Amino acid sequence: MIRLVVDSTCDMPRQIIEKYGIAVVPLQVVIEGKSYRDGVDIKNREFYDILRQGVMPQTSQINPADTEVLFREICRAGDDVIYLSFSSAMSGSFWMAKTIAEEVNEDYPERRLCVMDSEGGCAATGIIAMQTARWIAAGRGFDEIVAMTEAAIANIQHLFTLDSLNWLSKGGRVAKPVGYVGDKLQIKPILHVADKSMHIVTLVRGRKSTISTIIKMLTERIKNFPEQLIMITHADDIATAEHIRDEIHKVLPGAKTCLLPIGCVLATHLGVGGVGLFFMKNKIEGYDLLEEEVNGF
User: Fold this and answer.
1) How far is CA 288 from CA 80, 233, 283, in A?
2) Per the confidence metrics, is the pTM higher than 0.70?
């Protein structure tokens, strides 16, 4: 058997995690000197309230001891491991997990442990994980699944917008004066992930124009594969996420959508009000997520 492992930056419906027995390794968020396991010791709602109070948390990678225990438990049970990690350019979790997997493999040489860089995070990794879980459940071989998952990683797309440029200035991604002026002028950034890191694609003035722009960008990028599952995430802004979902169905009637909250680690960098769209640029071999029942919340 193959066990799929992800970290807590991977956003997907709880029902999928339970259905396919996916193990989730939490990253850490540090709030005023105290460390919390993302999604375990602190939940999204509580975390968003903390952000609204003006507190700027910090984040750290997966706990090495807990990750080693998990890998050893899986190997001891006679199972192999495929671990989908948060982007190696945005966290040290990938390299940490890779080192741990190599050490565990020395004690369990008959087992296969593959640590894969998702090259992104959030529901983009969630889409990859959901599809990989379906391939595992279908009984495909280890090497075949790894190759197909690599194809999924190569085709995944991230598009997201923030409610305020100030979140980028707080994180050091733009100068503080730029964040301040941008906020006053209602300038919203649209970002994507390229080369494993977040980059600003464009700046748009006003929330309404920003939503129109991001949907236009979606339709352009998805034109080769319009009938697929599109994940929509939000940082405590369900109304905007639902509006974007409704607009997507107008222009892409064959698509399926799922709404999810953004986890605590990524919300630290995106801030309250961030909304993201995640999808495939091209159809990959074995893609069948339209057959999966997904319920967002």
Assistant:
1) 23, 21, 10
2) yes
